[in-house]
Amino acid sequence: MRRIAVLLMGPTGAGKSDLALQLVQRFPLEIVSVDSALVYRGMDIGTAKPDAATRARFAHHLIDIRDAAQSYSAGEFVRDARRVMQQIWLRGRHPLLVGGTMLYFHALTHGIAELPAADAGVRADLDAQAAEHGWAALHTELAHVDPAAAARIHENDPQRIQRALEVHRLTGQTITALQQARRALLGQHAEEATEVVELALAPAERSVIHRRVAGRLGEMMKAGFLGEVRSFYDRGDLTREHPSMRAVGYRQLWEHLAGVDSLEQATEKALIATRQLAKRQLTWLRARASSRWFDTAHRECAQQVSDMLSGRAFAGHAS
Description:
- The chain is an alpha/beta fold.
- Helices cover 50% and strands 9% of the residues.
- The chain has two domains: 4-112 and 182-312, Rossmann fold, CATH 3.40.50.300; 120-179, Histone, subunit A, CATH 1.10.20.140.
- It has a six-stranded parallel β-sheet, with helices on both faces.
- The model is unreliable at 187-191 (pLDDT under 50).
């Protein structure tokens, strides 16, 4: 059987989910989430997770597979995604990988490094060091041991700073060197050759994204986003350092509940962080030369994507 994988990538607010639902009604596709927040149960409003009715009607994979207290790595995503993709192909259908977690897309298409498992002791030491000196100081340390990693990791990204330093302390090698030894995982064997179709979705004008992000955050707050975050805050087994609670929006509202910011300040910070996330996502997408770009602000975007897929990947399949 001809194996096809369609990658539907774009910044937050680009309209990926709506387009995905239109595509699964026209082509033999099943949605595979490529989103590091959608994996967590209970994180529904702040992630714009598809509702139960939508998921009952259209197959969605890799959603609600972790508790918020658990971690989920790019390596685990690649393992889970490849398993799900194999199952979809065996059903005579094809995976539509949809999301904005660009690290996951990159790991799936370009391979993933063989990195050591997380070490609680090393992480505790790094957290203590950060508490005393700040994450900027640890970023400076990273710049000494791994300048390449420090150049691509922002000093306000404690999760990635911690991981890079952890890898160095555990192995004596830089995370950059280990990542350069990665192996491709999508279609790596000739007998498993996969036709990969990359679609990049984004409005031509960045202001469109800004308006959509602001509107969506407002709707989330009206829908009870603060209460959702409060339910995690009140559990007692979570902290602001858990990967789930570092997600954009959750992190800022957690700070409000902790008394650090007013609700107005937290909401404004969440809006700014979401815009910054969209900017980073767009920067990553522009580096993928094999992507076909579509302007989601164009009223014929869905038809344009469908026409392209009909002609290139699914000739004779469109309904």
